[in-house]
Amino acid sequence: MAGMTLPQYLLKQAQEHPRDVAIREKEKGIWQEWTWAQYLDEVRALALGLMAIGLEKGDKLAILSDNRPQVYWTMVAVQIAGGMPVPLYQDAISRELQYVIDHADATIVLAEDQEQVDKVLEIRDHLSKVRRIVYDDPKGMRHYTDRALIRFTEVQAQGQELDKKRPELFQQLVAAGKPDDVALVSYTSGTTGAPKGAMLSHANLIAAVEGMLQIETYRRTDETLAYLPPAWVGDTFWSLAAALIVGFRVNCPERPETVQENIREIAPHFLVAPPRIWENLVSLVQVKMEDASFVKRRLYNLFMPHGYEVARRHMERQPLSFWQRVMHALGEFFVFGPLRDHLGFRRIRSAYTGGAALGPEVFLFFRALGINLKQVYGQTECGVSCVQRDEQVALGTVGTPFPNVEIKLSSEGEVIVRGPCVFLGYYKNPEATASTIRDGWLYSGDAAFFDHNSQLVVIDRAKDVTSLANGTKFAPQFIENKLKFSPYIKEAVTIGQDRPYVAAMINIDMENVGKWAERRQVAYTTYTDLAQKPEVYELIAREVERVNRDLDEVMQIKRYVLLHKELDADDEEITRTRKVRRGFVAKKYDTIIAALYADATEVPVTSVITYQDGRQVTIETKLSIRSVGEALVAV
Question: Does the structure show a pLDDT above 60 at 515?
Answer without folding.
Answer: yes
